[in-house]
Amino acid sequence: ILAVSEALGQNFKDNPEYAEYLRQIRTQVDRLSHLMQDLLDLGSPLQLSRTDTQSINEICRASINLWRQLPQEYTNKIEIISPSEGSDLIIACDGPRLQQVFINLIENAAQHSPEGSKILLEIPEPDEDSIHVRVIDEGSGISPENIERIFEPFFTTRKRGTGLGLNIVRHIVDIHGGNVTIWNNDPSPGCTVEVSLPRREES
């Protein structure tokens, strides 16, 4: 379908009457592609394909760049806040898997935030054993009755949501030996999702 829409786009690129229809086709194909990948991930045990030592700063920056390349209409501003030695915060991880964690979290934050609002990826000073990354948005937050269910598969508060993104986040973080928590910001607005991962000293 995507190949056909691209071919049609070339044939009708000078005809604005069809441009919006083709854009909608591409958007829906991309949405279905992501849904299928999420279902495949959910239906099979997640495993680390490979691990190596990487800077958490670099993983966050790569995740932001990849998210910006996705077809979307969000206008949120994304900023990384980290300690001065952030480039030296090293973890052992499957890079592409961990990037998917932050892509999903950024996407979730953008979906629940006002257009043009800021999304922060904050890397606070690490603990002795753990590195933390907080994704902070300025959205509406999560109601008390939903906050305990937010990581359940297929649970969503969005009309067109799949309820898979945050569940996959939790699974990927789990297989890295970490944990993920979420809370409403105080003061409001918005909420924070914190990913905690085992720290590895740079050799």
UniProtKB/TrEMBL annotation:
<keyword id="KW-0418">Kinase</keyword>
<protein>
    <recommendedName>
        <fullName>Histidine kinase domain-containing protein</fullName>
    </recommendedName>
</protein>
<keyword id="KW-0902">Two-component regulatory system</keyword>
<dbReference type="InterPro" id="IPR004358">
    <property type="entry name" value="Sig_transdc_His_kin-like_C"/>
</dbReference>
<keyword id="KW-0067">ATP-binding</keyword>
<dbReference type="GO" id="GO:0000155">
    <property type="term" value="F:phosphorelay sensor kinase activity"/>
</dbReference>
<dbReference type="InterPro" id="IPR003594">
    <property type="entry name" value="HATPase_dom"/>
</dbReference>
<dbReference type="InterPro" id="IPR003661">
    <property type="entry name" value="HisK_dim/P_dom"/>
</dbReference>
<feature type="domain" description="Histidine kinase">
    <location>
        <begin position="1"/>
        <end position="201"/>
    </location>
</feature>
<dbReference type="Pfam" id="PF02518">
    <property type="entry name" value="HATPase_c"/>
</dbReference>
<keyword id="KW-0597">Phosphoprotein</keyword>
<keyword id="KW-0547">Nucleotide-binding</keyword>
<keyword id="KW-0808">Transferase</keyword>
<dbReference type="GO" id="GO:0005524">
    <property type="term" value="F:ATP binding"/>
</dbReference>
<dbReference type="InterPro" id="IPR036890">
    <property type="entry name" value="HATPase_C_sf"/>
</dbReference>
<dbReference type="InterPro" id="IPR005467">
    <property type="entry name" value="His_kinase_dom"/>
</dbReference>
